[in-house]
Design brief:
- This protein has 433 residues and is of the alpha/beta class.
- It is built from 17 helices and eleven strands.
- The strands form three sheets. The protein has a five-stranded mixed sheet. The chain has a four-stranded mixed sheet with strand order 6-7-5-8.
- The chain is globular, with a radius of gyration of 22 Å.
Length: 433
């Protein structure tokens, strides 16, 4: 899911004294445990998206009801950094790297030796998990879902609008909506990671659809940010603002505030992912969620949706501690159980990454998303920061590039100067790494 989570929250440590037991795998025997020393565990995850936060916390709260002798510290963000990876890096520098964490920049932290390869007892719950450096370091929280335009179907029906078949039709859709004195699009630019939704869209269309190894070629000096593809991607993005299609003051709008703009009809569309569906219907039960990917000028559709080496990861120090390792394994089996995993998936409108038993059924909106993923005409690609190995972007480049794009949009730097700077930043971070 590109980094969809925010960071500017005051650092708080919540201590939960959880019930627990001596266990192995899925053993929940509660006998003869109160005389044991408590096991202390620290957990963190990206918390900027409310649904994601609630989904994980629900499982943690359920875990405490049946497991004695465990103390968990949930480390919330944060420390006024620019991204979730920065949060983890700072926690490491402070000697507070968590035992169990959601991991998004796996290549960087695996290379640093901070996370451990996972045992088959955990990875065996999943069919396919991409490897980093030949090893599996993460298990996915959910199957990868695409990003696209979220809109109100009732509003579209009332105005006689339909989902576009080409990018030209999408621009015409924006023109019609703007003529009705409503902004077509709302962007939550206050959260830097939110910029990745639009940036990845145009990068898929204009760069990675033509060369899926563009990052590798850039590392080898064979491509440049000044090339026609990246330049066109930035030009197409900026044009949405130049045509007055985006709610003004986007740099002061946070990701979670975009919901209000849609339900109050201050904007008609939002580029985001299915995790926003529940938030919209909770804010307005009459909001009829629609979703479509934006086609390119030839009507081709490129979407995210390929498996990523992201998800739950275990620190190397925790993996070396037999008690912590046992508790972590128990928690992960609990998280992905047929009873608990659906609670997380329902909170985020997610698609299961494991073969769930029972009667779990995705929502009607998610069935629509799944139809897009299953459409043979849709081409699934990796986003700019979703590559790993030799195709990975340099650590630190993503946020610096997102900030450059914000400066381009707000006319603080020209496109040419921004792309020149992008090349310099890429080379600098590549050298630093």
């Amino acid at each position: 899911m590109g980094d969809r989570y925010g960071n500017k929250i005051v650092l708080i440590l919540f201590f939960f004294v959880l019930t627990g037991c001596s266990f192995d795998g899925n053993d929940n025997d509660l006998s003869s445990v109160t005389d044991k020393e408590p096991v202390h565990l620290t957990i963190t995850y990206a918390m900027g998206d409310g649904a994601h936060h609630r989904g994980i916390q629900t499982v943690i709260n359920d875990f405490k009801k049946s497991h004695l002798n465990v103390q968990i510290t949930v480390v919330e963000q944060t420390l006024q950094t620019k991204g979730y990876a920065d949060e983890l890096s700072l926690l490491d520098a402070m000697g507070q790297f968590p035992d169990l964490m959601e991991m998004q920049d796996t290549q960087m932290f695996a290379n640093a030796g901070l996370i451990a390869k996972l045992p088959e007892s955990i990875t065996g719950m999943f069919d396919t998990i991409p490897k980093i450096n030949g090893e599996i370091y993460t298990v996915p929280l959910e199957a990868e879902v695409p990003q696209g335009i979220i809109y109100n179907k009732k509003l579209f029906r009332a105005w006689g609008l339909h989902e576009p078949r080409t990018y030209a039709e999408f621009l015409e859709l924006c023109r019609i909506i703007r003529s009705k004195q409503i902004y077509p699009l709302v962007v939550g630019g206050k959260d830097l990671w939110h910029m990745g939704f639009w940036i990845n869209h145009f990068m898929l269309d204009d760069v990675y659809a033509k060369n899926q190894h563009w990052n590798l070629k850039r590392n080898e000096g064979q491509t440049s940010w000044k090339d026609a593809g990246p330049k066109k991607a930035v030009q197409e993005l900026k044009m949405l603002w130049e045509r007055d299609y985006v709610v003004p003051g986007f740099m002061n709008i946070s990701d979670h505030q975009t919901v209000d703009y849609l339900v109050q009809r201050k904007a008609a569309m939002l580029m985001s992912g299915p995790w926003m569906f529940n938030q919209l219907t909770q804010a307005d039960p009459d909001f009829e969620v629609g979703f479509f990917p934006i086609p390119d000028r030839q009507g081709r559709i490129y979407m995210l949706g390929l498996p990523q080496p992201t998800g739950w990861a275990v620190s190397s120090l925790a993996a070396a501690d037999s008690d912590k390792n046992r508790v972590i394994e128990q928690f992960l089996h609990f998280f992905y159980s047929d009873e608990e995993y659906p609670k997380y998936l329902q909170a985020v409108n997610g698609i299961p990454a494991t073969p769930l038993g029972g009667s779990f059924k995705v929502s009607e909106q998610m069935e629509e998303v799944q139809r897009w993923l299953d459409n043979p005409k849709v081409i699934q690609l990796q986003g700019m920061d979703h590559y790993w190995g030799k195709d990975a972007i340099p650590p630190g480049f993503r946020n610096a590039f997102y900030e450059l794009i914000q400066q381009v949009i707000t006319d603080n730097i020209s496109i040419n100067k921004a792309l020149n700077k992008a090349d310099s930043i890429w080379d600098q971070h590549k050298t630093d790494s």
